Amino acid sequence: MPEQRPPITIKAVVFDLDGTLLDTAPDFVHVLNRMRDEANLPPLAEPVIRNTVSDGARALVSLGFGLTEGEPGFEPLRQRLLDLYLEHLAVQSGPFPGIPELLDFLHSRGLAWGIATNKPEIYTTRLLEALQLQPDCVICPDHVQHPKPHPESMHLAANLLRCKAEEIIYVGDHSRDIDCGKQANCITIAAAYGYIKDPHEVSAWQASHTVDHAAQIRAIVERYLQG
């Protein structure tokens, strides 16, 4: 659908974390393949693991060991993955190309920025501290009754950032991110550079905008600032 510039001026940009703001896949690749090595299994190719990172720890266990939640052995493997990840969560992770410059631009224009993620607070906080990132708000599943795709995360973000949800651009690399933003009446950007299994699925999300590189987000922000 064609992009249209609505008459609203945005006041904040909020990002999903894994696969949108930060490339955390390398650390998950290390952890999952370490676990497979412990089980005498060959390593999985990095692209295969990358495309599953945004689906969470359960999906990674299913990918790595062919188990579904509830099957014998699943929960110990999930906990092992989380324990190892906590030890290795900021070794190779970092902002996607274009993100540091984008954050500098937001600061220069007086715009707030935040994070709304389904990553639990214990991992999110340690990751942000290790990478010396200081967003204006951080929403984790620990802070809401209903995680994404429910819109509660974005309503809470709007409250913390002292603006309306309609004045927020929400950027994410998963359908639940876009659904969350749309239900809260946010402007949405689909991060097609993120952890996406099938690039063709992005158009089905019907985000307000789609970008193939984080650097493209700046131009979209500028359009809304011009009104």
Write the layout of secondary structure elements.
Layout: E1 12-15, E2 22-23, H1 25-38, H2 46-50, H3 57-65, H4 74-87, E3 94-95, H5 99-108, E4 112-116, H6 121-130, E5 137-139, H7 152-161, E6 168-172, H8 175-183, E7 187-191, H9 202-205, E8 209-211, H10 217-226
Parallel strand pairs: 1-4, 1-6, 4-5, 6-7, 7-8
Antiparallel strand pairs: 2-3
Helix pairs in contact: 1-3, 1-4, 3-4
Question: Which labels suit this protein?
Answer:
227 residues; alpha/beta; Rossmann fold; 6-stranded parallel β-sheet; two-stranded antiparallel ribbon; 13% strand; elongated
Describe the protein in words.
Helices cover 42% and strands 13% of the residues. The chain has 227 residues and is an alpha/beta fold. The chain folds into two domains: 12-23 and 93-226, HAD superfamily/HAD-like (Rossmann fold); 25-87. A six-stranded parallel sheet has the order 5-4-1-6-7-8, with helices on both faces. A two-stranded antiparallel ribbon has the order 2-3. The radius of gyration is 18 Å and the shape is elongated.
Tell me the CATH topology of the largest domain.
Rossmann fold
Distance between the termini: 20 Å
Mean pLDDT: 94
How are helices and strands ordered from N to C?
EEHHHHEHEHEHEHEHEH
Report the portion of residues in β strands: 5-15%
CATH architecture of the largest domain: 3-Layer(aba) Sandwich
Query: What is the top-level CATH class of the largest domain?
Result: Alpha Beta
Rg is 18 Å
Number of helices: 10
The CATH homologous superfamily name of the largest domain equals: HAD superfamily/HAD-like
Based on Cα principal axes, name the global outline.
Answer: elongated
Classification by helices and strands:
alpha/beta
What percent of residues adopt helix (DSSP H or I)? 40-55%
SS elements, strand count: 8
Walk across the major sheet and give the strand order.
5-4-1-6-7-8
Q: Major sheet: size, sense and barrel closure?
A: 6 strands, parallel
Whole-number total of structural domains: 2
pLDDT < 50 stretches: none
